[in-house]
Amino acid sequence: MRQMIIYNMLKVMLMCSLVIAVYATSAINHNPEVDAPQEMSKEGAAEYEQAVKQTKFYKKMKGITDEIDRTIERARKYLASGDTNMLSQENSNYQDFLEQNNLTPVQDAYLSQVYVYSGDLYDLLSIPKIAENIEDKVHRKIVIKRALNIAEYDMRECEICMSVNHPNVLQTYFVYEAMPESYQKDNQTIVWLFQEYLENKIPAIYNEGSVQEKALKIQHRTIIRDVARGLSYLHKNRIIHLDVKIQNTVGTYSKSRGRIIYKIIDFGFSRILNEEEPSIHIKNRAFGTDPFRSPEVYLKSIHGYSSDVWCLGLLAAYVGNIHIASNRWAKKKGISVNITGEQIPINADMGHVYEKFLNGTIKIAIGPEYPVILAEFIKACTVRDEKERPTVDELLENHPYLQSNNALYAEEVTGDVEKYTI
């Protein structure tokens, strides 16, 4: 009897209605690359930046973000001194300030804080990119991200976000950098990114047989194909993302295309490779998130195009509700869910389950309830030797999973699926 290795199953869901799922299938043939927006020249980018700085909205946001930086600076000092009363008062003032300025905090992590701005529409329309983008959206909001930029890690999020322009990649309207006093001594800066609002997240858990699961089966191929198209664009521009995962795959309804368009977000770990360079060795670093990090990243500190392909395969497994390791299963002692690349020395007393999975000692079976075409796709993406993995373009052009226009489970489940493992 076939042995299935399951450690703490993590089930994923797609939060969308069946109404959305129905029209998604009818629009699945649309190729966003056909009408991808034109790249902006360096001269055009410089002119755009200057034009943005002259708008009332830019000046308004600069004042708001400067105050947020000052507030966080004061809070850091109170925290360091143990003054809990002042820290509590500062936090209360901070919440009031956000509310007064139409900002809703949606993420507060070590490396970044994210807010949704839902203020005056006329303010938003003063920025050309925003005016053009929100015309196609249902929700007229923007996202404001405050990210820690650590010089030691060569983080290039601002540069990459402002250089990319593709339907399946998050659009950034403008950015600027700040250097609060307490960050200077650590050679760190704060970058502020003003980006498009995406409303359709893929949550982590859903119930089998639920409406969400049924909708997911219709949307599954669309999600993976959209992400693959985004990766293809990035790789053509020598950008490796290094953190493709469910949390960094978010959709937004496009009125012009009549469906949800899924996009890659968060370029905090991304790198720009040199010409003819398929990968880069970053000593003692392993950027990404478990359990999406590839064997070469985790075990050898090699980061490249193939690493994104591995992530794409794991994404297909997660979105497909394949039995796969949870973060608890994937972690070793001391590894956080989303670290800044630090490698943890191997502890001989630990089980090393994740490491065994990466080197192929332990494999996870894809059950016979899943279509063979999906199993083949995941297996192709998760070849342990990065040099043997197909490129994203090869998958888009040749793999039947991305070529077909059927819903995920429309194919008949046949064949010997036991041999398909990751």
UniProtKB/TrEMBL annotation:
Signal sequence segment: 1-24
Alphabetical keyword list: Kinase, Serine/threonine-protein kinase, Signal, Transferase
SMART domains: S_TKc (SM00220)
InterPro entries tied to this protein: Kinase-like_dom_sf, Prot_kinase_dom, Ser_Thr_kinase
Domain Protein kinase: 110-402
Family matches, as Pfam families: Pkinase
Domain of life: Eukaryota
SUPFAM superfamilies: Protein kinase-like (PK-like)
GO cellular component term of the entry, any: cytoplasm
GO molecular function terms listed in the Swiss-Prot or TrEMBL record: ATP binding; protein serine/threonine kinase activity
Protein name, as recorded: Serine/threonine protein kinase
